[in-house]
Amino acid sequence: MDKVTVMKDIDELHDTYCADCLVIKQLRKDRGKPGAHRFCIEACTVGERLQFLGDELLKVYSKKL
Known about the structure:
Number of helices: 3
Helix content: over 70%
Structural class: mainly alpha
Number of strands: 0
């Protein structure tokens, strides 16, 4: 994957699922920002996909170094 494709995928996922996520809004009220962030990292399927894309982006940058 190239850098532009990965960035577009990340933006699209965030805009589609994360920007207006009601689960995150409620978790921020209940658990605070760190608790909501932890949910995204550990339990959310979109968060897992974003982590994968982030790893792909790191691979692209590490190839250039």
